[in-house]
Amino acid sequence: MDGAGLDWTLYWFMLPVCVAVATTAMLTGISGAALMVPVLVIGLPALGPAYALQTTSLSIGSALIIQSAGFASGLYGYWRRRLIDVRSALPFLVFAVPAAVAGALALGALAQYDTLIKGAYALLMLALCPLLLLRGRGQTVAMTAGSVARPEMGAGGRLRSLTGHDGRTWHYSVPRPGASGGLLTALGGFLTGLVAVGMGEVLMPQLLRRHRLPPPVAAAMSVLIVIIVTLTAAFVYAASLASAADDLALPWHMLVWAMAGVALGGQIGPRLHGLVAQRAMERLISLLFAAIGLAMGLVALRGSGVL
Q1: Domain boundaries, the chain
Q2: Which of 18, 67, 143, 207 is most buried (CB neighbours < 10 A)?
C-alpha cells in the first residue's frame, strides 16, 4: 500500500478509543484485542465504506499489531513497579508460543471465510462470559512488606516472594501449568493467533484460582505472556501479508493512531491498578463480552444470508 496516497488523519478518533481499550486491558489482564476486534469489524464499517477494512482476517491481524504496542507499553509499566516474574512465566510460554504460530497460520489460511471467522469470534466471546464471572474466586491476599505469614499454597508448591517498588512484598507459590494447564494455555495461544483473543482470558483464571497468585502479580505475568504470544502471532501474520495485493496490505494510516493510543493506555492502566475494584471491572467486562458476542453473531448471520 502506497503511504503517499493515504489520508493519515482519517482515523484520528482511534487515538482516544485505543487509550480506553488499553487502559481497560491493563486493569483486567484480558487481551486488548477482545475489545479492539469489534471496533474494527463492527465499529469502522458503521462509519462508512471509507473506514471499513477489507476482510475480517485483516481486522484481526491489525488487532494483533495494535495489541502488541499496548501490552509492550503496559509491560514496561509493570516492570517499573517490579511486578514481573519472568521465571514463573517461562513454563506457560513453552505451551503458548508454538500454538500461537499455528493459530496465525490458520488465520491466513481461512482469510476468505469472513462469516466463519466472525461466527467463531462470537461463540468465543459468549463462552468467555462465565469464565470472567467465575475467575475472581480464590484470590490470594497480599502480604505487606516484612510479613512472616504464609499464603495458602497454590498448585505450584514452592514459595516465592516478590517486592514491588512501593515496598510491598507478595508471597505466592511458584505456578506450574501441568498437563491440563498446559493444554488450556496452548488453547489460549492458538485462539490468540486465530482470532486475537484468548490468551489472557484463559491464563488469568489459572493464575488467580488454581495458582492463587496475588492479583497484581497475576496481571503482570499475564501481560508478559500475552505480549510475547501476541508479538509472535503478529509477526507470523504480517509475514504472510508481505507479498499481498494493495487491498490486503496493513492499514498503517489507522495503525499509527491506534498504536499511539494503546501505548498511552498501557501506561495509564498499571497506575490505576488497585484504585478500581477488580471484581466490579470483571463483571462489567463479562457483560460487555456478552454484548459483543451477540452483536458479532448477528453480523455473521447477516453475512451468511440467514437474516
Answers
A1: 10-304
A2: 67
What nine digits make up the cell of 167? 515496598
Side-chain-side CA neighbours of residue 51 (13 Å): 16
Angle at 218 between CA 215 and CA 220, to 5 degrees: 110
Q: Per residue of the chain (307 residues), what is the pLDDT tens digit?
A: 555 678 899 999 999 999 998 888 777 666 677 788 999 999 999 999 999 988 888 898 899 889 888 778 778 878 888 889 999 999 999 999 999 999 999 888 887 888 888 898 899 888 888 776 765 554 444 444 344 334 455 555 578 888 888 888 988 888 988 889 999 999 999 999 998 888 887 888 888 888 889 888 888 898 899 889 999 998 998 887 765 554 567 889 999 999 999 989 878 877 776 676 767 777 788 888 888 899 999 988 887 877 6
Helix (H, G, I), strand (E, B) or coil at 173: strand
- For 83, how many CA atoms within 13 A lie in the half-sphere containing its CB? 25
210 near 134, Cβ under 8 Å? no
